[in-house]
Design goal:
Elements lengths: L4 E6 L3 H7 L6 E5 L9 H14 L7 E5 L7 H9 L6 E4 L5 H18 L7 E5 L4 H5 L11 E5 L3 H7 L13 H17 L2 E4 L8 H14 L3 E4 L5 H7 L4 H16 L5 E4 L2 E4 H13 L10
Parallel strand pairs: 1-2, 1-8, 2-3, 3-4, 4-5, 5-6, 6-7, 7-8
Antiparallel strand pairs: 9-10
Helix pairs in contact: 10-11
The structure holds coenzyme A and magnesium ion.
């Protein structure tokens, strides 16, 4: 599944649920965690389940639910309520490593049977850097835990966990611990062979800033990001789709290699391209849904 944009929707808000039905986001994340007050959780669970079931046929987005952390009793109540026909995936916050993903996967094994839905059909996206243990255990995702399709990261809960007064330096740039979390999430995604999903851009009125941030994020290797406001979805979808120029250049690289049979290196416009460039060009074409032919990779 391609997850360029994942729009958070507080699951206790009828208005926002209603508004999100026609969203162009690749996925909605109906939230039962931080955006919902504890007293409203039972209501939010029922509303999320109802929305997933009611939109099951014909919708264009994948339906995810962010449950509460596995360390809280609320997580099991969340799961018991929202594993219904129409649920595509769970977002697991505050994970301490791949062992949490495995545990959650076992819970889902049973709940899928109860709901009469195909085994392993519910996928997982993990928020992998919200606890100190989570950051230290990022390497555990290289074991490729079941159901995992994406890894995302967050800097807010980690700041609370570390006791940081802010996650930014006085000059405004992210402090090293948070850059490490971001880079670690990217590496863990590559090691697990799942999609790297960047964190939210909080200033939801700043479209130009979001665009700039998405471009840098895409350059780093992220293939999608969290949205918190409907206005962010279009920019995100565009920035994480290969541009026509990206696709054209990837085609030139693939063509140059295929014309130069048997050589590991080619020159294009006076620059050297070797195997890693071919691999990346093929990834770009795959992402754009373009067939690149068999290059024996
Ligand atoms: N999903 C669906 N609809 C949303 C939405 C969202 N995430 N955010 C805003 N909307 C709706 C609003 O309800 C409003 O529609 P309405 O006029 O029919 O009521 C419209 O979009 C415009 O909203 P706007 O006034 O610009 O924003 P706001 O001040 O109402 O809300 C936030 C701002 C940040 C509270 C809101 O965007 C939000 O709840 N975001 C998600 C927060 C979240 O889930 N956080 C947890 C993950 S970090
Ligand atoms: Mg949080």
């Amino acid at each position: 599944m391609m997850l360029r944009s994942m729009l958070f929707v507080p699951a206790d808000s009828q208005r926002k649920l209603q508004k999100s039905v026609d969203s162009k986001a690749d996925a909605l994340i109906l939230d039962l965690e931080d955006s919902v007050a504890e007293s409203r959780r039972p209501l939010a669970r029922a509303m999320a389940a109802e929305q997933l079931a009611a939109t099951r046929v014909g919708r264009t987005w994948k339906g995810f639910v962010r449950i509460n952390p596995l360390s809280s009793a609320a997580a099991l109540e969340d799961l018991a309520a929202v594993v219904v026909d129409g649920l595509d995936g769970i977002v697991l916050p505050k994970a301490d490593g791949a062992a949490d993903v495995l545990c959650l996967s076992h819970y889902l094994d049973v709940l899928e049977v109860r709901a009469g839905i195909a085994p392993q059909s519910i996928k997982l996206v993990v928020v992998a850097t919200e606890t100190a243990a989570g950051v230290l255990n990022l390497a555990s995702y290289a074991a490729k835990p079941p159901r995992l399709v994406g890894i995302t990261w967050g800097a807010e809960d980690l700041a609370a966990a570390l006791g940081s007064i802010s996650n930014r330096e006085e000059g405004g740039e992210l402090s090293h611990a948070y850059l490490m979390a971001r880079s670690g999430a990217l590496m863990a995604s590559a090691a697990a062979e799942v999609q790297a999903i960047d964190t939210l851009y909080g200033d939801f009125r700043d479209a130009a800033g979001l665009e700039r941030d998405c471009r840098n994020s895409r350059r780093r290797g992220f293939l999608g990001r969290i949205a918190i406001h409907p206005d962010q979805v279009e920019t995100i979808n565009r920035c994480y789709s290969p541009s026509p120029e990206d696709v054209a250049f990837a085609r030139r690289i693939v063509a140059a290699f295929s014309e130069a049979h048997g050589t590991g290196v080619v020159g294009i416009d006076g620059k050297m391209y070797d195997r890693p460039h071919l691999v990346q060009a093929m990834k770009t074409l795959a992402q754009a849904g373009v067939s690149s032919g068999n290059q024996g990779l």
